[in-house]
Amino acid sequence: MTIEFSNFSFRYESLDKPTLKHINLRIEKGEKIVIIGPSGSGKSTLGQCLNGLIPHAIKGECSGTLSIAGKETNNLEMHDYTEQVGTVLQDTDSQFVGLSVGEDIAFALENQLTSNIEMYPLVRSTAKMVELEALLDKAPNDLSGGQKQRVSLAGILVDDVDILLFDEPLAALDPKTGKRTIEIIDDLHRESGKTVVIIEHRLEDVLHRPVDRVILMEQGSIVADLTPDELLASPLLEQHGIREPLYISALKAAGCSLSNSQSLSNLNQFDVIRYKEQILHWDEKSTASLPFVSDKTLLDIRGLSYSYDGEKNALEYISFDVKRGEFVAILGKNGSGKSTITKLIMGVLEPDAGTISIEGQDLSELTIFERSQKVGVVMQNPNHMISHHMIFDEVAFGLRNRGLDETTIKEKVLSTLELCGLHKYRNWPVEALSYGQKKRVTIASILVLEPELLILDEPTAGQDYRNYTSMLSFIQELNDKLGITVLIISHDMHLVLEYTTRSIVISDSKLLANQATTDVFTQPELLSKANLTTTSLYELANRLNLDSAQAFMQKYITHERKSDAERTQPPAMNLEAQA
5, 95, 125, 577: most buried, per Cβ within 10 A? Predict the structure, then answer.
């Protein structure tokens, strides 16, 4: 089933300029394509054109042609799209319609008036295909992120569509679950011959299994249409703010010359031994450094336990502390209890046992408002935080609650929007933004309050590399110069490796490890228990048989921090005046 865009453009009804500009793209039946690009590049809009949301649910002006299986889409009704294209959205919660997994998978069949005799075996066989056969009676909202993703996938597979469209399928998944999701998609592609289109920021994770082509978009246009090896050998990813695979970044940093004649997209097939001397030479002349951390404890958690249902513990006697000025990660699989810790610190939940203290003060003695003066939390889903129509008002909300005058509020809000790369959107409505841009708005709304402890829950979900690097370089600057303590809850191993000095690992409600991040990332068995994976940087060190993978990783981190600071150079905030 061929897909063809011919000189295709699209402009949203609410915008003056087109979001997609003169797209020419042909996807052959049975191909597996990845579409990448920074936030706002138009990749999700392209997907919405494919599945019929544009123009049937989202209004705007189209020009040029888009044809699916030889039929121009301007002649298709919405049901014509759904018979051909199945979509798994970034926000899986918004796709659920059934009260149980089985009902949700069966929804399309019920709409087609399929008899129960045919329906039940079809639902079961589809659930088995995506490893859900034991969960058919479970409510979708009780599932982990990876399980929800598989329910959405089963819901479109049962309909036997020819084209599978995945919009950011890895955004909310832990590394091991994300890897398994890519494997399931690849198995389906190979066994069924369906056309697969994946829109994703995490290129290295998608390339865990082979793809035919990678389409790179920027500002509504296609700037590259290449094989993975051709793209990785070129400077295009760095030029357009897309994160390269870690092992590729490390080889380029060491001055290695890469060619698309090599199997660059598969580290196991890539002959890296030829670069060993260069890596050793680079390693010798690099100097690793660790930031200074105070010995004063800011956050102290002792014997923390919590159960949602009174039976199974989400957290079980967790104890750790965070020093003032530290940059710490909490790691673990979906459903391990990471976000529960945040809710307990915020005061949204009350612990069954244990204590949480900030600077020696028990948080149970403070109101939620008093806690918010000390702790700022940026939640994983920006739609759960945003409460105002306009961006400026959203960022100003907390300051207005504190009773500041409008002149001071305007100065602080505009300064923070500038730092977060949002200044040009200051007079925009929130709904006009992409998911990643909304995420930056929520981060800005917390940063403007200058908290002592900043908690970021999955800060990179829906964010492109350029934007989150700029954001985290700024947060690193606040951490270094003002001593703001940062706690990150993340599945993004690259982010954790580059920015945090210590990692707290939780699995099945228990504390598994509390160690330096590079220590944690060189223990495959520990990572596996927490549904995490080793990074390709560690795998590269092993392939090269380096004496110390940990030292190699630490030196790479130092190099990347320096490079990020030079690349992003966010507009300077008057940090001394704030201090």
Answer: 5
